[in-house]
Amino acid sequence: MRAREIRVGRRLRYLEAEAPASVRARGTLLLVHGFPLNARMWEPQEPLAERGWRVLAPQLRGFDGGVDDPPVSSIDDYAGDLVDLLDALHVEDAVVGGLSMGGYVAFALWRLAPRYIRGLVLADTRPQADAPEVLEARRQMLGRLREFGPAAVADALLPALVGATTKAGRSDVPARLRELMVSSPPAATEGAIAAMMARPDSTPLLSAIHCPTLVVVGEEDTLTPPAVSLDLHARIAGAELAVIPGAGHMSNLEQPALFNQALAAFLEHRV
Ligand code: MLT
Question: What is the pTM of this model?
Answer without folding.
Answer: 0.97
